Amino acid sequence: MNSAIDSAESLVTIDNWRPRQPSSNYVMQGLATKKALDTYHLILAPTHACNLRCRHCYLPDHAAQLLPEAVALRLVEEWSEVSLDERGAFGGIFHVKGGEPFVVPYLKKIMERLVELQSLRLMLTTNGTYTSAKVLESLRKCNDGLHGHVTVIVSLDGAFSATHDALRGAGQFEITVGFLRSLRAMNVQAHLNCVLHAGNVKEVPAYIGLAKDLGVDQINFLPLVPKGFGIELQSMQVPHLVLHRELQAVYETGDQATKKLLAGSLSHILDREETEHVTPAHECVAAYRGLFYITPEGNVYTCPNLVNTEHKIGTVYGASLRELCDSLPTLYANLRPQAGFDDRLICTGERVLYEKTGQTLSLQNLRSLQAKAGSPPTLKSESRKAVAFCVSRNF
Questions:
Q1: Fewest beta carbons less than 10 Å away: which of 99, 118, 124, 375?
Q2: C-alpha span between 105 and 109 (Å, rounded)
Q3: All structural domains of the chain with their residue ranges
């Protein structure tokens, strides 16, 4: 067992929290019996504004609307209280994404307040193109102040400049790689997000080699989901089973460093099922206690993949985060309306998207992956230690 990756036996539950130590890996998970995340995770998108115009972006717009600074700082306080009460020190993540988080004028104030509180981890998802000395120094100070509880997720969509730049713009690959080298020099934990599509799926082995060279801690390979601006690239979507086979081949033949990079992947989840007897639940973590996604308008959802009107939990103007936590069971029930449902090893948000938009082929591909990934136990026989995961990792 890799000590950097929690097993089912060591999952923190709502009645059994403990102080956390920094870990280079992150797997979003929670016990199915508890319907709560192991590590609480609030994802805040204060704005959709971004300095890039990536062709595969899943957002609906790049509007400059900004969640008010006072509201964002209030959310830091509220999330600190909830996480401390229910998960203990550093048992919760305050995650800022966008758009691009480094265009948010009060990002530094969020970071400074987190250092003062000493209760939450910081996670940022960035395109890695803000590389000024001022930005890097703010990250270094925050990482030092939080004793290593900072993780920067950087979007890098290819092992080579031509592949990455085809989606994100000429010259962006070299800038982002330079940013990653700076993070390594400052000992800031770095993860990679890579959207896999027809143009880069064969680069996976080279990509892993690049990740090792850059000293990153984890890779999140994401499927291309045609939504938002990315709807124009629907023809580049690769069947889910094909993606899994490519990643599975690398996982099975890779060394321990490769397997560690792929923590949280479907291959890793299946490996844990076989070697550690960690049973994947019949659901993902959508609507589990401790998981929120908040938009620039202040609307609150459970994750970035479930942002339809019917999935809205409330707003940050109408309820506290603790009150919104208490509303999650209602959304949970609405997402799983039928007895005997099975979202084992797939993303509920992706499944709902394909059902809602009539993307029959994509839905069939999703279910084909699920069928090939292994026969689940019956709902009645599911282990009390069954674990739900975020399998899309769109965070």
A1: 375
A2: 9
A3: 33-389
Instruction: Spell out the alpha helix ranges (H) of the chain.
Output: 69-87, 107-117, 133-145, 161-168, 172-185, 204-214, 240-253, 256-261, 266-275, 321-335, 348-357, 360-372
Summarised one tens digit per residue, pLDDT across range 21-57 is: 778 899 999 999 999 999 999 999 999 999 999 999 9
Phi-psi region of 71 (alpha: psi -120 to 50; beta: other; left: phi over 0): alpha
pLDDT in tens, 122-147: 999 999 999 999 999 999 999 999 99
Strands 299-301 and 314-315: antiparallel
* Token couple for 350: 């992706």
What is the number of other CB atoms lying within 10 angstroms of the CB of residue 105? Answer: 10
pTM above 0.90, yes or no: yes
Per-residue burial over 211-248, b if 16 or more Cβ lie within 10 Å, else e, is: beebebbbbbbbbbbbbebbeebeebbbbbbebbebbb
Residue 330 CB partners (closer than 8 Å, separation 6+): none
Task: Look up residue 22 and give its amino acid.
Answer: P
CB neighbour list of residue 16: distance below 8 Å, 6 or more residues apart: none
Residues 221, 239: Cα–Cα separation, whole Å: 14
33-389 under CATH 3.40.50.150, yes or no: no
How many Å apart are CA 79 and CA 320, to the nearest integer?
A: 9
| Distance of alpha carbon 19 from the chain centroid | 22
